[in-house]
Amino acid sequence: MSRRYLIFVELAFLAVVGVVTVLLFRRPAPTPDAVAVDVKLPDAGSQVFLQRQGDAAMVYLVRHGDGSIERVPPQQMSERLYTAGKARGAALGLSSPVVAFWLGVGLVGQILFTGRMVVQWLASERRGKSVVPHLFWWMSLMGSLLLLSYFLWRRDPIGLLGSAFGSFIYLKNILWIRSEARQATLAVTEGS
Fold first, then answer.
1. Is 51 within 8 Å of 32 (Cβ atoms)?
2. What φ, ψ does residue 34 adopt, rounded to 5°?
3. In terms of residue numbers, what domain contains 163?
4. Which end of the chain, N or C, is surrounded by fewer C-beta atoms within 10 Å?
5. What pTM does this model have?
């Protein structure tokens, strides 16, 4: 692949990640007088807003992942949060199979991403000098893609940016390694 093509694909990928990020975080309040509140519900796709009604009473508006909006009185929201908090008492805040799955994706991604440094360190210790083995780049790519998907699910813009930029660097290094291997194979084949 040509260098210009890779740069174009990298910029297109970053543009897609940017657009997805803007769309994820740009969800306006269901009504102009509602304000977003940071409330963690078991359904990670839900957003919570607080709205003052005409009689000065407050009501929570819960926008679910499917776009539906639920009006919840304060006492009912308190009960819901209390129940969710008790259910979340398990390790790592596992409140549903979906949450457990995505926590698993994030954990595997972080283990791969951290483990790549252990692989690099062990390879360098064996050789007695600083080296970067091929496995380092594969673990970097897989870890960053898993973390990218996890941060998309969590709607974490900082994590998204960190994972998105590195992914192409890791992919580019893997492509260079594969290109060198092909050239070496061709040289051996042509030489015999």
1. no
2. -90, 145
3. 1-30+96-192
4. C
5. 0.65
